[in-house]
């Protein structure tokens, strides 16, 4: 079924729907929100990666325009990812030059395209729902904790950091306590006013057509100018710092080309494979999460996404950008802003380009604290209390993996945390599967117990342990009826257990009767979509 979805999604673009007024009315304001969120994150991640600031903006532009156009996802937004900063920093240092690193980015893009062609994106369909929900809630909590210092004017950690242990030798909690001791009241006032605008502005229906985040930025710029020269004044590092380009020659001089002479360097290939794998995993996780947030509940083609990300990384490597992934922070901001189609992601890339080329000086008047307020609200919506209540009502088999994922992601990083959550989630899946291979019923007949075991439609290897324990524990002097008439498939190991039990049960005075159980079963074939519809 996944293959059919991918094929259908790649079968051609219905461009008309992207320009419908009802969609553009939502996508244009959403693109502004995503632009405002992406701008400091692109700069912060580039700074933390030891790369030129221009490379961060360039990656955001390519992620928006190129990946947005090629992707089958309507709401996902690609750009430089915080999860790759350590890999990128070590790679630039270890490979000796930024140009050699760009070759690794280009090769990583080629590998991602190959992964998409061989349908490796299908693994994205096997992430448990509770783990994805936990990842979203964890990202929300991280946004709240990480953006609080920026909101009060303490900018020691770079924008976009998601790891618990920070590069400044602090962690998430010590960073918060450090911020409390070094509050800038001007930044705090701007952040507080921004949050109030984000909450109450949408309630005024007649003027709500102006996006609240845009009003937040305008008010932040005005207050920043008013506070200048006073005790509430902001320092330079508390504003956006986009590179200023003074001429066309200077602009084109910012682009870098990969060092193709290093193609035989083994370390380049190791870096490329590492980037391709990590970026692909983060992309698949983000894609699954965005589909859960999508109010229309569309399903994004995972293999096409890998191809789109690969194309983006090839172009990024060719022009001097950073590796990119689908990013859950920007994507969730896109969803919360009301976007409906991929035009929002594409246009946000255009805004980044225009800001860099036309109005960099004006952009540099935007206080980081007002942008932090936008991310604080995004985090609140991702980690809302209602989500925890909803997961609790689903039962412990959903709630435990959900909470474990949250804790693991918050105290480590995205991939490690999700990995821990997956282990716990798979444990509960196996536990549930092993408990439900059969229906167990006991009858009394003439002072003799008759135990009926009716097997499930499919009895897999995972049911082996549960069935073996059940049969071994049967009381003596009973009659056991094992009914497999409803079973389409019984695993060979389980069949062996059943026949061995029948052969040896007489030693305990147990009579075993088998109903509808064959000597062997063929593995059930996967139905195609057309076969399913006929059935």
UniProtKB/TrEMBL annotation:
<feature type="transmembrane region" description="Helical">
    <location>
        <begin position="125"/>
        <end position="145"/>
    </location>
</feature>
<feature type="transmembrane region" description="Helical">
    <location>
        <begin position="77"/>
        <end position="95"/>
    </location>
</feature>
<feature type="transmembrane region" description="Helical">
    <location>
        <begin position="53"/>
        <end position="70"/>
    </location>
</feature>
<protein>
    <submittedName>
        <fullName>SulP family inorganic anion transporter</fullName>
    </submittedName>
</protein>
<feature type="transmembrane region" description="Helical">
    <location>
        <begin position="307"/>
        <end position="329"/>
    </location>
</feature>
<feature type="transmembrane region" description="Helical">
    <location>
        <begin position="268"/>
        <end position="287"/>
    </location>
</feature>
<feature type="transmembrane region" description="Helical">
    <location>
        <begin position="183"/>
        <end position="201"/>
    </location>
</feature>
<keyword id="KW-0812">Transmembrane</keyword>
<dbReference type="InterPro" id="IPR002645">
    <property type="entry name" value="STAS_dom"/>
</dbReference>
<feature type="transmembrane region" description="Helical">
    <location>
        <begin position="28"/>
        <end position="47"/>
    </location>
</feature>
<feature type="transmembrane region" description="Helical">
    <location>
        <begin position="101"/>
        <end position="118"/>
    </location>
</feature>
<dbReference type="Pfam" id="PF00916">
    <property type="entry name" value="Sulfate_transp"/>
</dbReference>
<dbReference type="InterPro" id="IPR011547">
    <property type="entry name" value="SLC26A/SulP_dom"/>
</dbReference>
<feature type="transmembrane region" description="Helical">
    <location>
        <begin position="208"/>
        <end position="227"/>
    </location>
</feature>
<feature type="transmembrane region" description="Helical">
    <location>
        <begin position="350"/>
        <end position="379"/>
    </location>
</feature>
<dbReference type="InterPro" id="IPR001902">
    <property type="entry name" value="SLC26A/SulP_fam"/>
</dbReference>
<feature type="domain" description="STAS">
    <location>
        <begin position="440"/>
        <end position="535"/>
    </location>
</feature>
<feature type="transmembrane region" description="Helical">
    <location>
        <begin position="399"/>
        <end position="430"/>
    </location>
</feature>
<keyword id="KW-0472">Membrane</keyword>
<keyword id="KW-1133">Transmembrane helix</keyword>
């Amino acid at each position: 079924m996944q293959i059919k979805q991918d094929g259908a999604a790649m079968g051609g673009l219905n461009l008309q729907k992207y320009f419908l007024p009802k969609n553009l009315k939502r996508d244009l304001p959403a693109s502004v929100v995503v632009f405002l969120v992406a701008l400091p994150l692109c700069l912060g991640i580039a700074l933390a990666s030891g790369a030129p600031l221009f490379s961060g903006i360039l990656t955001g532009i390519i992620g928006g325009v190129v990946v947005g156009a090629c992707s089958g996802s309507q709401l996902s937004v690609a750009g430089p990812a915080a999860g790759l900063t350590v890999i990128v920093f070590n790679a630039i240092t270890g490979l000796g030059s930024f140009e050699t690193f760009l070759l690794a980015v280009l090769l990583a893009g080629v590998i991602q395209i190959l992964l998409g062609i061989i349908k490796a994106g299908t693994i994205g369909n096997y992430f448990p729902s509770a783990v994805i929900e936990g990842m979203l809630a964890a990202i929300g909590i991280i946004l709240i904790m990480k953006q609080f210092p920026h909101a009060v004017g303490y900018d020691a950690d770079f924008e976009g950091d998601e790891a618990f242990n920070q590069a400044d030798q602090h962690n998430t909690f010590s960073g918060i306590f450090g911020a409390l001791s070094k509050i800038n009241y001007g930044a705090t006032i701007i952040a507080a006013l921004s949050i109030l605008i984000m909450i109450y502005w949408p309630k005024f229906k007649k003027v709500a057509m102006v996006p609240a985040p845009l009003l937040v930025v305008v008010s932040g710029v005005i207050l920043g100018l008013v506070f200048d020269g006073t005790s509430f004044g902001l320092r330079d590092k508390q504003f956006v710092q986009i590179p200023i380009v003074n001429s066309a020659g200077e602009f084109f001089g910012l682009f870098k080309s990969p060092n193709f002479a290093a193609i035989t360097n083994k370390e380049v290939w190791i870096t490329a494979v590492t980037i391709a794998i990590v970026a692909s995993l983060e992309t698949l996780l983000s894609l699954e999460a965005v589909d859960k947030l999508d109010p229309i509940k569309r399903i994004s083609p995972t293999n096409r996404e890998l191809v789109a990300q690969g194309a983006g990384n090839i172009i990024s490597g060719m022009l001097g950008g950073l590796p990119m992934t689908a990013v859950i922070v920007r994507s969730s901001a896109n969803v919360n802003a009301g976007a409906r189609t991929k035009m929002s992601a594409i246009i946000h890339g255009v805004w980044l380009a225009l800001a860099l080329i036309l109005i960099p000086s004006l952009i540099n008047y935007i206080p980081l604290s007002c942008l932090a307020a936008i991310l604080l609200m995004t985090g609140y919506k991702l980690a809302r209390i209602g989500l925890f209540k909803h997961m609790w009502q689903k039962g412990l088999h959903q709630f435990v993996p959900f909470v474990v994922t949250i804790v693991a992601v918050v105290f480590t990083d995205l991939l490690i945390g999700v990995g821990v959550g997956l282990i716990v989630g798979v444990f509960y899946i196996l536990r549930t599967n092993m408990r439900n291979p059969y229906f167990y019923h006991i009858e009394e007949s003439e002072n003799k117990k008759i135990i009926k075991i009716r097997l499930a439609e499919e009895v897999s290897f995972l049911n082996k342990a549960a069935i073996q324990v059940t049969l071994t524990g049967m009381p003596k002097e009973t009659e056991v009826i094992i009914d497999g008439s409803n079973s389409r498939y019984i695993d060979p190991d389980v069949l062996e257990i059943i026949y061995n039990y029948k052969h040896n049960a007489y030693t305990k005075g147990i009579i075993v009767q088998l109903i509808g159980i064959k000597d062997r079963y063929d593995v059930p074939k996967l139905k195609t979509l057309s076969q399913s519809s006929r059935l």
